[in-house]
Amino acid sequence: MSRTLVITNQKGGVGKTTTSVNLAAGLAEAGKRVLLVDLDPQGNATMGSGIEKRGLTHTVYHVLLGLATVEQARARAESGGYDVLPANRDLAGAEVEMVDIERRETRLKGALAAVADQYDYVLIDCPPALSLLTLNGLVAADAVMIPMQCEYYALEGLSDLVNTIKKVRAQLNPRIEIEGLLRTMFDPRNTLAQQVSAQLQQHFGDKVYATVIPRNVRLAEAPSYGTPAIQFDRTCKGSQAYLALAEEILRRAQAAAARAAAAQV
Questions:
Q1: What is the CATH number of domain 3-264?
Q2: In a 10 Å sphere around its CB, with 0-12 CB exposed, 13-18 middle and 19+ buried, how is residue 164 labelled?
Q3: Is the pLDDT of residue 265 over 80?
Q4: Could you tell me if 45 and 84 are in contact, meaning their C-beta atoms sit under 8 angstroms apart?
Q5: What DSSP designation does 127 have?
Q6: pTM above 0.70?
């Protein structure tokens, strides 16, 4: 059964795309069939996966407007071993063009339903804004992963995002839940980072991933080579952290399946 995770935070520069690309590659390496959906008009997840965004015949823009199917628009990220529903600048106009479309917030959900049986995981990389594109991601997803830096402003933005998720659950997607909070760009020498991390764990408990993504130069370098960091430099601390995150997600999924099975007995 396919599981869809939307990776979002309205604050920019927190590692959403780095997380999306490397988690996709990590899950693919573990033998899972993965589709990465790039919902950001900047197309960074597309480029970071080694796919040239300029000149694409079909993208997620065409899928949202009903001009192409996911099967027609997807491309293969050869270095990462997963599929990508790519994006480019065309996507910036999608929100305006979708205004008059009926059930515009469910366009992505409907398109992904057609390929759900082809993937074990669908990861959705959202733009840094609570926009119609992000709303499409939230409506299509089973759960939300929130990458965040351990700093004061991140806590402020987190409360807004949690409230948005609650509204989406109440009005559009009753199954959506917070999968987990991922601490990114973490520097253990920073006292504030330690304090914010402790607050997150106190408030959200086991919703905070045990895996922590450190600040790492190799993670920042990998996109310029069009490959996930875990392929670019597998031994660096950042790559090792994302491999550990993929393992943690798979363990969580197994535990949840076991609990569900036990509840039916």
A1: 3.40.50.300
A2: middle
A3: no
A4: yes
A5: P
A6: yes
